[in-house]
């Protein structure tokens, strides 16, 4: 386990190391897997019925991860898992790069660009260490480090359960949006894919607002910022074949 720094307690300072990030992420991911497995909602990769879905989803993730903009592309495991719940339109990331996507979100989206944009946003939260900073602010550094030492095993479930509802600061949301565009810039995708999701989600309100918006608010201004960044990088006018994405939706 890495050594925690001794100074600085502001939002922007991460007081535990990248190695601790990875170790905490492994523990939280194992707990998250266990929680959803007990509800029979975790789509297991080793189940033959799910293999095609993961082939299709992994292809999108790998394109997003191909960006040179990632800080921890080679350090973090960057595995992605599907939680089968068609009523929940959400996704979240643990520290250290474990990504979870609800089937309800995939079914809510309309294009592969949008999926890539939302995945890019979640990858950014992990890669920019927003998740670590936000957990640190909510639970405290000593508490998180004690989890790594195995001192509070019963509290691990509390951390895992909090990730789906973790509220990020406006600063972190803006940065995750920007990096989603920057990640997609080096892919075949239209790099403003996340904006498409926010536009559709905002149109749904107030009838059935996706859970994603409760923890990722202010879609209007964010759409403008995403589109402005995409225009700056000149990467928003690409067209992507949606056949694979539509297959993924059918499978789920």
């Amino acid at each position: 386990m890495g050594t925690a720094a001794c100074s600085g307690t502001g939002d922007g300072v991460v007081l535990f190391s990248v190695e601790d990030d990875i170790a905490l992420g492994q523990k939280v991911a194992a707990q998250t897997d266990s929680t959803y497995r007990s509800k029979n909602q975790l789509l297991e990769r080793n189940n033959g019925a799910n293999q095609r879905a993961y082939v299709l989803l992994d292809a999108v993730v790998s394109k997003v991860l191909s960006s040179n903009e990632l800080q921890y592309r080679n350090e973090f495991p960057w595995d992605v898992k599907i939680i089968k719940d068609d009523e929940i339109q959400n996704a979240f990331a643990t520290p250290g790069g474990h990504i979870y996507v609800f089937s309800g979100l995939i079914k809510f989206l309309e294009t592969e660009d949008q999926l890539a944009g939302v995945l890019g946003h979640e990858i950014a939260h992990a890669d920019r260490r927003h998740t670590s900073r936000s957990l640190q602010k909510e639970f405290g550094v000593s508490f998180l480090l004690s989890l790594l030492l195995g001192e509070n095993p019963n509290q691990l479930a509390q951390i895992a359960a909090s990730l789906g509802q973790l509220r990020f600061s406006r600063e972190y949301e803006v940065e995750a949006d920007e990096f989603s565009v920057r990640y997609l810039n080096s892919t075949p995708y239209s790099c403003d894919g996340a904006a498409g999701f926010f536009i559709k989600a905002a149109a749904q309100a107030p009838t059935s607002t996706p859970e994603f918006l409760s923890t990722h608010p202010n879609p209007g201004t964010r759409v403008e910022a995403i589109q402005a960044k995409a225009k700056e990088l000149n990467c928003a006018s690409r067209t992507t074949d949606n056949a694979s994405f539509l297959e993924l939706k059918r499978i789920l």
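Residues 18-251 form one domain. The chain has one domain: 18-251.
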